[in-house]
Inverse folding.
DNA sequence: AGTTATGCCTAAAATTCTTAGGTAAATATT
DNA sequence: AATATTTACCTAAGAATTTTAGGCATAACT
């Protein structure tokens, strides 16, 4: 259960990257996927991801399609071309950020 | 330069760690120090750090002493015992966070 | 029949940060 | 000598993002 507040600013990176990897996902699925793949470290909340996904759609980075499964509807998200670009950019920004943080944090602590 | 929005949630970690390393610093000095040590990647803003430092003081994690240099005053911050604890905790939380992110982000991208 | 899981959503409040200032002294520049 | 830049502190309005706390409905499990 590490660091809920560190997710701040990383949520969009995670969402875009999930879609880049999986091609097509729906919101609920993203929550499950992140929980499993992070070994429970990250627990996305629906109150956070749905507004974030809607903003990505408004910004033209993702598009949606509604698919009826049984009698319920899923809303699948997938990347647009600019979304794919943004995904790559976000991930490399994150890497730069981690490298810069490594310069700042105590080397002794980092070695541990 | 890189990733201003990623600093969200990391500012306190950076500040506490700076103090853990340097013992005693003043606000303006922290801004310079972070700029230099991150090779310009991180540019802390005073509008962000002063409220953050004041909150740390209110929470008992840092204490302050005013030192007159010439005719101007500097306000030095240093860690209290709970501040030292918090510093260690924040840094290890950050490391866990980075490890969890590594699990999530595309291995192909990470290899680049 | 009732609880849990699936699946979407929103809105108020809290938190954190940016932006855009203000104040004042010291130093550098023209 | 006047001006600009750097040093050094600060605040407050607004933006952005997230938490909290719900609502709604179907499906599956007990």
């Amino acid at each position: 259960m590490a660091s809920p507040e560190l997710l701040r600013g990383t949520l969009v990176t995670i969402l875009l990257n999930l879609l880049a990897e999986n091609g097509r996902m729906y919101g609920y699925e993203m929550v499950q996927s992140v929980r499993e793949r992070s070994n429970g470290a990250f627990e996305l909340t629906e109150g956070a991801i749905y507004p974030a996904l809607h903003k990505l759609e408004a910004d033209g980075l993702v598009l949606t399609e509604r698919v009826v499964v049984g009698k319920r509807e899923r809303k699948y998200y997938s990347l647009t071309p600019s979304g794919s670009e943004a995904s790559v950019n976000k991930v490399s920004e994150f890497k730069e950020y981690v490298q810069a943080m490594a310069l700042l944090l105590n080397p002794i602590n980092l070695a541990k």
